[in-house]
Structure formats: structure tokens, C-alpha cells
Design goal:
Layout (H helix, E strand, L loop, with lengths): L2 H5 L7 E6 L9 H13 L6 E4 L8 H13 L4 E7 L5 H13 L4 E5 L16 H11 L3 E6 L10 H13 L2 E8 L3 H13 L6 E5 L5 H11 L5 H9 L4 H21 L4 E5 L5 H10 L1
Parallel strand pairs: 1-2, 1-8, 2-3, 3-4, 4-5, 5-6, 6-7, 7-8
Helix pairs in contact: 5-6, 10-11
The protein binds flavin-adenine dinucleotide.
The site of flavin-adenine dinucleotide (FAD) has 24 residues, from β3, β4, α5, α6 and β6.
């Protein structure tokens, strides 16, 4: 099913979707099997879509395609591969699009990707909007894009960032998935500003249940995301108590999602980090 149909949701319950990543150093396939056993547990919440991240420069392309096939064939859920263009030339992009169309994938999350540390980029497609325009011209794929409630970390300004998002929408993006955030005010403000700029497609909040303090600090710095002061204080105080951190993270996400659902968001997209426990507990509470 394509994104238009998934989010053309006439009942009021939000569409549930998950993000997973191809496990690293999975020599004997055990990590992949573990990922699928976690996803099976999450399937009881009837997700409409599972997205699979794409490694910088396509490092995990084969594994990523295998995961996509298994999501479709074993879990019977719509897969959505992510794809980044920053280090890839047109020929490779064309080949990749052909390989996903051969396995009847209908959706794609089109991204620029992070600029590699060595600065080695391919100039064929400089921004996600260039990639989106190309995919729209060459394929029937239904396209999603990334959005940043607190602004992208390289953005000249918040206003400019939204102007570029508008370009992505004008080139055929059907749905925006947001960067993780912890303060819903940023999301509501972002949606308002997008709507004022004429972006009228679903903007789906990306939710990260916190399960590890160090990982959170790293992600928040990398993604330029505010950790609310009270949350930071509590997490710092209990940083060595992993059970406490996970419990707090789950409770925090329940409240965060509850508020989003009250405001009629069209969907909730969970950054699962390939684990089922936190997301399962959150969804059990919400549903
Ligand atoms: P762009 O939309 O190209 O934006 C990048 C920067 O350029 C922004 O600052 C923007 O303001 C500016 N800009 C945009 N268009 C223009 C233009 N036309 N002219 C001038 N400036 C412009 N990364 C991965 O490597 N793999 C993944 O699987 C992955 N999945 C993600 C999923 C989600 C939901 C999100 C939110 C992010 C994901 N990322 C992933 C991270 C993403 O690749 C980085 O945030 C990257 O730095 C920007 O990608 P983008 O598609 O938003 O780029």
C-alpha cells in the first residue's frame, strides 16, 4: 500500500509505524533473526509501515534489501526503505530504484544523508529535494521526506529550512517524518509554520523512547534536539540505573504520545532501535 492510502485514514486512531536499522557485524545472521523476533512482538499493534534506514554511502544495501523483503513476506507489513543521495551518483541511484521496484516496494524515504567527515560527496544530487524530483520523474514510488521540528543542524535559519521542505513537498513528497524531539511545543510550532508555508501533507512525529542516557546525549547533540531541563535532571541523577532510565523513558513517551494523539496527529513513527520492549509498553498504554 502506498503512503497516500496509508495516511488517508478515515478513522481517528493514528497510523502506527516503526523505524529499524540493519544490524551491524551480523556475520551469522543471528542479529537479523533477533530483529525479526522483536518486530513480530511489535506487530500485535498492527503497524501500517516499517521503515529501514540506509547506511552512509550504501554500506549495508544488500542487508537492507533482505530486511525489506522479509518485512513484506514474513510480517505482511508495508516496508519503506530510506535512501540517501549524498555519496551516490545517478547510475547507482537508478540501479537501486530498479532493485526495489523488482521486489514491489511502493514507498521510499528520500534523504540527502549526512555529509561524510572526509567531505567526499557526489555532486549529482546535492539535496534531498533533487533526489525527490528525480524519483518522482523516474518511478511510481510514493515518496516521504525528513523534517526537523527544531531545524536541521546545518540550516541557515528555521524559515529557510521550511522553505526547502516546501520544495520537497512541491516535488512530490506525500508524507514528512520528523526528527526525534522531546518537547511537543517544537512539533506543534513546526506543523503550524509548515501549514502557513503551504505544506499540507501529513507531518508524522518521530518518537524515541529513551532507554539509555549516554545514547540519548549523543543523539541529542548530533541531531540538535532539546532535552527538556527536568528530563535532563532526572536522567542525569539516575544515569547508572538502566532499569530506572528505561521506565522513565517509557512514562515520558506515553505522556508525549498522549498529548500528540489528543491533538489528532495522523500517525506515530517510533524509532525502535531494533527493540520491542519500550514501544510495546507505550502502545499497550495508549491503545
Ligand atoms: P536536505 O533536505 O537536503 O537538507 C539538508 C540541509 O540542506 C538542511 O540544512 C536544509 O536546510 C538545506 N537544504 C535543503 N535543500 C536545500 C536547497 N535546495 N538549497 C540549499 N540548501 C538546502 N540518515 C542516514 O544516513 N540514513 C537514514 O536512513 C536516515 N534516516 C532518517 C530518517 C528521518 C525521519 C530523519 C529525520 C533523518 C534521517 N537521516 C538518515 C538523517 C539525515 O540524512 C540527515 O539529517 C541529513 O543531514 C539531512 O538529510 P535531509 O534529507 O533532511 O537533507
Amino acid at each position: 500500500m502506498n503512503l497516500e492510502n496509508i495516511y488517508f485514514n478515515t478513522n481517528k486512531t493514528p497510523v502506527i509505524s516503526y523505524e529499524v536499522f540493519p544490524p551491524k557485524n551480523d556475520i551469522d545472521g543471528q542479529k537479523l533473526n533477533h530483529l525479526f523476533s522483536e518486530l513480530k512482538k511489535l506487530c500485535i499493534f498492527k503497524p501500517s509501515l516499517i521503515s529501514v534506514t540506509y547506511g552512509a554511502g550504501g554500506s549495508n544495501q544488500n542487508q537492507s534489501l533482505e530486511i525489506i523483503k522479509r518485512i513484506k513476506d514474513e510480517l505482511l507489513v508495508n516496508p519503506m526503505p530510506h535512501f540517501t543521495c549524498v555519496s551516490t551518483d545517478e547510475k547507482n541511484i537508478k540501479n537501486y530504484l530498479e532493485s526495489i521496484s523488482k521486489i514491489n516496494v511502493e514507498n521510499i524515504l528520500a534523504l540527502r544523508g549526512d555529509i561524510p567527515e572526509d567531505g567526499n560527496v557526489c555532486k549529482d544530487f546535492e539535496h534531498a529535494s533533487d533526489l525527490i524530483k528525480y524519483i518522482k520523474q523516474k518511478t511510481d514510488l510514493s515518496i516521504a521526506a525528513a523534517g526537523y521540528p527544531e531545524g536541521h543542524r546545518e540550516a541557515v535559519s528555521f524559515k529557510k529550512d521550511i522553505e526547502y521542505l516546501k520544495l520537497k513537498a512541491d516535488f512530490g513528497t506525500k508524507v514528512v517524518y520528523t526528527q526525534l524531539f522531546f518537547n511537543n511545543v517544537h512539533y506543534f510550532n513546526f506543523v503550524d509554520e509548515c501549514n502557513k508555508s503551504g505544506i499540507n501533507i501529513p507531518i508524522i512525529p518521530g518518537i524515541l523512547p529513551v532507554t539509555n542516557f549516554k545514547q540519548l546525549e549523543k543523539m541529542a547533540t548530533l541531531c540538535k534536539v532539546e532535552i527538556p531541563a527536568k528530563m535532563l535532571e532526572i536522567l542525569e541523577k539516575h544515569k547508572d540505573d538502566s532499569d530506572y532510565i528505561e521506565k522513565y523513558g517509557i512514562e515520558f513517551s506515553i505522556k508525549q504520545c498522549d498529548e500528540l494523539v489528543q491533538k489528532n496527529v495522523k500517525g506515530l513513527h517510533f524509532y525502535t532501535l531494533n527493540k520491542s520492549n519500550a514501544v510495546s509498553q507505550i502502545l499497550s498504554e495508549l491503545m
